[in-house]
Amino acid sequence: MSINQELNLLSDRFRTFYPVVIDIETAGFNPNTDAVLEIALITLKMDELGWLHKEDKLHFHIEPFKGSTINSDAIAFNKIDPFNPLRGAISEKIAIQSILDMVRQGIKIKGCSRGIVVAHNANFDHNFLMAAMKREKIKNNPFHPFVTFDTAALSGLVVGQTVLSKACKAIGLSFDNNQAHSALYDSTQTANLFCALVNRWKRLGGWPINLKNINLN
C-alpha cells in the first residue's frame, strides 16, 4: 500500500463508517404498514488521493409484502404499478438480504466497522429499511441503527438547496426530472451529490483536518 493510500482510506474518513447510498420507493409514508416497491443501493470508494467516487450498485423491484397498504396518492406520485408482471419484482426478504450481503462484504473489504445510510431526506429511507429488516426477521443488521448522512441537510449547508434536483444543479450536476422517483436514478444522483459535497469540502481544505489551522480561541 502506498503512502497516499494509507492516508486516504475510506475507513478513516467517516469515523470507520461505511457510507451506503440508498433510495427506496414506497406505497406510502408509514414504514410499518406501507409497501416497499423499489430499492436501490450505491456503494462508494475513496481513491489514493482521498477523492470519493461511486463504486457498485444493486437495484430491485419489490413485491408488496402480505397485508401491506397501497396508497393511491403514492402510486400516482412515483408512477409505479405494484402488480405489473413486467416489473420483475422479487420478495422483500430476498432483496433486503442481497443488499445486506453486499454491505457486509464492503464493510469487510474497506476495513470499516458498520454501514451508514446516505440518502436524501434520510430519515424516510432509514425508517423503511429498518422496518423491512424487522418485518423479515433479518438479524445482524450491518447499518447503524439511527445515525444517517442526510444529503438534504448537507446540501442546505453547502449550496443553500434542500430539494434533490435543485441541490444537484446548484453544485454543478445535471438532473433529469423525467427520471426522478426511480430508485436507481435517485440513488445515483444522491451518490453523485454526496461525493460532490464531500469532495468540495476536501477541495476547500477541510479534509484532512489540519489542527494547526484551527483557531480554538
From TrEMBL:
<dbReference type="InterPro" id="IPR013520">
    <property type="entry name" value="Ribonucl_H"/>
</dbReference>
<dbReference type="GO" id="GO:0016896">
    <property type="term" value="F:RNA exonuclease activity, producing 5'-phosphomonoesters"/>
</dbReference>
<dbReference type="GO" id="GO:0000287">
    <property type="term" value="F:magnesium ion binding"/>
</dbReference>
<feature type="active site" description="Proton donor/acceptor">
    <location>
        <position position="181"/>
    </location>
</feature>
<keyword id="KW-0819">tRNA processing</keyword>
<keyword id="KW-0540">Nuclease</keyword>
<keyword id="KW-0460">Magnesium</keyword>
<dbReference type="GO" id="GO:0045004">
    <property type="term" value="P:DNA replication proofreading"/>
</dbReference>
<dbReference type="InterPro" id="IPR012337">
    <property type="entry name" value="RNaseH-like_sf"/>
</dbReference>
<feature type="binding site">
    <location>
        <position position="181"/>
    </location>
    <ligand>
        <name>Mg(2+) 2</name>
    </ligand>
</feature>
<feature type="site" description="Important for substrate binding and specificity">
    <location>
        <position position="124"/>
    </location>
</feature>
<keyword id="KW-0269">Exonuclease</keyword>
<comment type="similarity">
    <text>Belongs to the RNase T family.</text>
</comment>
<feature type="site" description="Important for substrate binding and specificity">
    <location>
        <position position="77"/>
    </location>
</feature>
<dbReference type="InterPro" id="IPR036397">
    <property type="entry name" value="RNaseH_sf"/>
</dbReference>
<keyword id="KW-0378">Hydrolase</keyword>
<dbReference type="GO" id="GO:0008033">
    <property type="term" value="P:tRNA processing"/>
</dbReference>
<feature type="site" description="Important for substrate binding and specificity">
    <location>
        <position position="29"/>
    </location>
</feature>
<comment type="subunit">
    <text>Homodimer.</text>
</comment>
<dbReference type="GO" id="GO:0005829">
    <property type="term" value="C:cytosol"/>
</dbReference>
<keyword id="KW-0479">Metal-binding</keyword>
<dbReference type="InterPro" id="IPR005987">
    <property type="entry name" value="RNase_T"/>
</dbReference>
<feature type="binding site">
    <location>
        <position position="23"/>
    </location>
    <ligand>
        <name>Mg(2+) 2</name>
    </ligand>
</feature>
<dbReference type="GO" id="GO:0008408">
    <property type="term" value="F:3'-5' exonuclease activity"/>
</dbReference>
<feature type="binding site">
    <location>
        <position position="186"/>
    </location>
    <ligand>
        <name>Mg(2+) 2</name>
    </ligand>
</feature>
<comment type="function">
    <text>Trims short 3' overhangs of a variety of RNA species, leaving a one or two nucleotide 3' overhang. Responsible for the end-turnover of tRNA: specifically removes the terminal AMP residue from uncharged tRNA (tRNA-C-C-A). Also appears to be involved in tRNA biosynthesis.</text>
</comment>
<feature type="site" description="Important for substrate binding and specificity">
    <location>
        <position position="146"/>
    </location>
</feature>
<feature type="binding site">
    <location>
        <position position="23"/>
    </location>
    <ligand>
        <name>Mg(2+) 1</name>
    </ligand>
</feature>
<dbReference type="Pfam" id="PF00929">
    <property type="entry name" value="RNase_T"/>
</dbReference>
<protein>
    <recommendedName>
        <fullName>Ribonuclease T</fullName>
        <ecNumber>3.1.13.-</ecNumber>
    </recommendedName>
</protein>
<feature type="binding site">
    <location>
        <position position="25"/>
    </location>
    <ligand>
        <name>Mg(2+) 2</name>
    </ligand>
</feature>
<dbReference type="GO" id="GO:0003676">
    <property type="term" value="F:nucleic acid binding"/>
</dbReference>
<feature type="domain" description="Exonuclease">
    <location>
        <begin position="18"/>
        <end position="203"/>
    </location>
</feature>
